[in-house]
């Protein structure tokens, strides 16, 4: 099977399940990985769940482990430019040819599972593919980001060295519950007997649910909020320097990414690494070195230019709040020009609300619809923004919206592309191909 055929097959899964809302089913993913020989049990794993920050935290874990000389598998979602990004070994996505060949190898198992449990979903297929690829690559460890929730998420077949819940806020409420307590109860379903669960959750109701789940499961509860101190230092203008002090040591970090919230993600990753076992745990110097070279595409990703450009996949209110806080702190005297698209499944008003009061203009746009992921029409975004007291123009084509935002911005302004992974991916690819690579 070539890569194009593999992509067509996966797109068919989205169409199939979008038409009949397949529930989260651990019975199917368990049968699936069993048919594949349980590849996820052949190497140690670190399991990362949470509302926000789990992709960044997972990437930090992988960076530190790579700096320690480990062969590291990394599965995060969603991807930006290519589905191959969901299967990375030592930072490199799986090759397209290998991707197609691997899916073809998995087809007999897929057909066996389909007969008894229904066809594995797009998400389940990519997750299982990552498990198999990591086993074939003989990784020393794999870092696996959870999808939605935890209790019934496909990643909950793992028996990890450490489980992590970065934070809990309101997102996917139609699936997980309408309160932080309900959402936390679902995410805490990843707690397992004897496996430390590291949590950076601050919400009191959410924390109580996670502590209760850990107690019921016999999982040691480790609170980053209680045990770890973050001490900022003066450092790079567009990075951040700070110390992380844990019960086991002090780490002097220079993190080349924006956003104070990334400091807590780094602290969470470090505390998890300290508990990962003597055979995995990097040294202090290796953690510092790995995080100093950190790259997280589409997460507060800064490109210096005139005007400067930031790409960030803030697609829920919590992420947008973090983005706004980071922009205010990093560019206190600057004006912003936003390019925003939002998926129909999201609460547009709540996503836009953190932007109120910024010195900013807005271009509301869209992205190419895929099954189950349709965009809110730009005119509707502009209307909701106006109700919140923000002026914006509707521009259907995202590249045109980006071009208008850049053209109308002053040299010292910052253009920010956000609101959806899909619009960030589209415009980031365009930016790199047409501006960065050409040196414009």
Task: Report on the biggest sheet.
Answer: 8 strands, mixed
Number of domains: 2
Give the DSSP E fraction (strand runs of 2 or more residues). 15-25%
Helix content: 40-55%
Name some characteristics of this structure.
440 residues; alpha/beta; Protein-Tyrosine Phosphatase, Chain A; eight-stranded mixed beta sheet; six-stranded mixed beta sheet; 17 strands; globular
What does this structure look like?
- With 440 residues, the protein is an alpha/beta fold.
- The strands form three sheets. It has an eight-stranded mixed sheet with strand order 4-3-2-5-1-6-7-8, with helices on both faces. A six-stranded mixed sheet has the order 12-13-17-14-15-16. A three-stranded antiparallel sheet has the order 9-10-11.
- Helix 3 packs across helix 10 (261-274) and helix 4 crosses helix 5.
- 42% of the residues lie in helices and 16% in strands.
- It has two domains: 3-292, Mur-like, catalytic domain (UDP-N-acetylmuramoyl-L-alanine:D-glutamate ligase, 3-Layer(aba) Sandwich), CATH 3.40.1190.10; 301-436, Mur ligase, C-terminal domain (Protein-Tyrosine Phosphatase, Chain A, Alpha-Beta Complex), CATH 3.90.190.
- It has helices at residues 3-18, 26-35, 54-67, 96-117, 122-136, 173-176, 180-187, 204-217, 224-227, 261-274, 284-292, 317-330, 348-352, 378-387, 398-408, 421-436, and strands spanning 45-49, 72-75, 88-89, 92-93, 141-145, 162-165, 197-199, 221-223, 229-233, 240-246, 249-255, 301-303, 308-311, 336-340, 360-364, 392-394, 414-418.
- The chain contains 16 helices and 17 strands.
């Amino acid at each position: 099977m070539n890569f194009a055929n593999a992509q067509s097959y996966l797109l068919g899964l989205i169409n199939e399940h979008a038409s009949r809302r397949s529930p989260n089913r651990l019975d199917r993913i368990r049968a699936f990985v069993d048919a594949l020989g349980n590849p996820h049990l052949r190497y140690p794993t670190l399991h990362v769940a949470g509302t926000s920050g789990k992709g960044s935290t997972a990437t930090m874990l992988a960076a530190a482990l790579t700096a320690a000389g480990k062969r590291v598998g990394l599965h995060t979602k969603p991807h930006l430019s290519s589905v191959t990004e969901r299967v990375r070994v030592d930072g490199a996505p799986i090759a397209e040819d290998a991707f197609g060949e691997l899916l073809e190898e998995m087809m007999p198992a897929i057909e066996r599972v389909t007969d008894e449990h229904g066809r594995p979903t797009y998400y389940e297929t990519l997750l299982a593919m990552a498990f198999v690829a990591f086993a074939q690559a003989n990784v020393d460890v794999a870092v696996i980001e959870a999808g939605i929730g935890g209790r019934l998420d496909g990643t909950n077949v793992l028996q990890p060295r450490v489980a992590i819940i970065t934070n809990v806020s309101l997102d996917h409420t139609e699936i997980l519950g309408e309160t932080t307590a309900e959402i936390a109860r679902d995410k805490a379903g990843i707690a397992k007997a004897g496996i430390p669960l590291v949590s950076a959750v601050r919400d009191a109701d959410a924390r109580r649910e996670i502590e209760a789940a850990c107690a019921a499961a016999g999982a040691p509860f480790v609170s980053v909020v209680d045990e770890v101190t973050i001490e900022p230092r003066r450092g790079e203008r567009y990075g951040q320097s700070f110390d992380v002090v844990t019960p086991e040591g002090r780490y002097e970090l220079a993190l080349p990414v924006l956003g104070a919230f990334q400091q807590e993600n780094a602290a969470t990753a470090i505390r998890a690494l300290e508990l990962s076992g003597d055979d995995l745990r990097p040294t202090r110097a290796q953690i510092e070195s790995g995080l100093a070279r950190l790259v997280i595409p589409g997460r507060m990703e800064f490109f210096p230019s005139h005007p400067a450009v930031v790409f960030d996949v803030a697609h829920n209110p919590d992420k947008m709040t973090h983005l706004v806080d980071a922009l205010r702190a990093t560019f206190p005297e600057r004006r912003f020009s936003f390019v925003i698209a939002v998926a129909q499944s999201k609460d547009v008003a709540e996503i836009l609300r953190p932007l109120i009061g910024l010195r900013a203009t807005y271009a509301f746009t869209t992205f190419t619809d895929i099954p189950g992921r349709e965009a809110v029409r730009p005119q509707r975004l502009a209307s909701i923004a106006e109700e919140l007291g923000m002026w914006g123009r509707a521009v259907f084509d995202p590249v045109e919206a980006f071009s208008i935002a850049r053209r109308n911005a002053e040299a010292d302004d910052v253009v920010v592309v956000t609101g959806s992974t899909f619009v960030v991916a589209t415009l980031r690819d365009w930016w790199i191909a047409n501006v960065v690579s050409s040196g414009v």
